Amino acid sequence: MPIYKIADLDIKINPVYDYVKEILSPYMCDSLNFDFEVKFSRMDIIEHANEFDNEFSLGYYENSMILDSVYKTILEKYDGFFFHSSCLAIDNKACAFTAPSGTGKSTHTALWRNMLGSKVVMINDDKPIIRKKDGVFYAYGTPWMGKSGIGNNIKVPLKAVFILKRNEENRVMKVSPSKVIKELLEAAMIDSDRQMVTNLLELINDFLGRVTVFELFCNKDIEAAKTAYDAFCEIE
Asked: How far apart are CA 101 and CA 117, in angstroms?
C-alpha cells in the first residue's frame, strides 16, 4: 500500500480510484513505516456517495472521505489543521490569505506572482495544513489545491494571516485576532465534534499568539499586492 508524506507525516493510503491516485501522486514517498492509515473500501465509498445521490464521481467522494479523515487525525493527534486559504511564501516566510469562497483569494495571490515573479512560491491555493512542529507553526503544501491545482510539497514558517475583504481602495491594518476570530475559525474548517472543536480552539489560540493578523481591504489592481506586501515586509 502506498505511503504519502503530507505535513511531515507518513500516511498509508490505498486509493481505489484513479482520480484520487493522481491527486495524491506528487506526495508519494519511499518510507516503509507510517504514522497513521486511511483506508476505505469500494463499498464504503459507494455508500457515502449514495447519501448525496451520486451527484459527482465515486473518485470525488473517495477524495472527500480521505481529506476528512486526514483532517480529523491531524487535528486530534498531530497539532495541525487545514486552513482554507491561498498561501504563499517569500524569503522563507509564509502568509495566508483567507476569505469566503469567491472573494478573490487566488486572484490576489496571482497579483503577488505577477509583481514579484519567481521570488514568490505558492504553497497551496486552497487547503494548506497549518501544523505546529518543534514550537513553530508551519504552512504545508497538500495534495488538495482547489480548482487551480497550484501548490508545492513544501513547508514554510507562517508569519501572517490576511483576512481579505473587497474594497474600491487598498488599505491594510493589523488587527487583534479576537476581532476576526469568526473568520479564522471558519477558515480552519471547524468540525462539529465537541472534542475536535476543543482541540482546534486550543491550537488556534496558540497559533494566533505567534502570527500577525491583518485585515486587507483591496481591489484587483496590482497596487493591492503592493499594499499587502509592504505590510508583510514590516513583520520582524
From this structure: 25
**Block residue for cell numbers 498509508:** 12
Per-residue tens of pLDDT for the chain, all 236 residues: 799 999 999 999 999 999 999 999 999 999 999 999 999 999 999 999 998 877 899 999 999 999 999 999 999 999 999 999 999 999 999 999 998 888 889 999 999 999 999 999 999 999 999 999 999 999 999 999 988 889 999 999 999 999 999 999 999 999 998 888 888 888 987 666 777 888 888 999 899 999 999 999 999 999 999 999 999 999 87
Decide: 161 and 211 in contact? Cβ < 8 Å: yes
Phi, psi of 116 (to 5 degrees): -110, -5
State the distance between the two ends of the chain, measured CA to CA, in whole angstroms.
Answer: 44
Name the pTM for this structure. 0.94
Is residue 34 within 8 A of residue 11, CB to CB? The reply is: yes
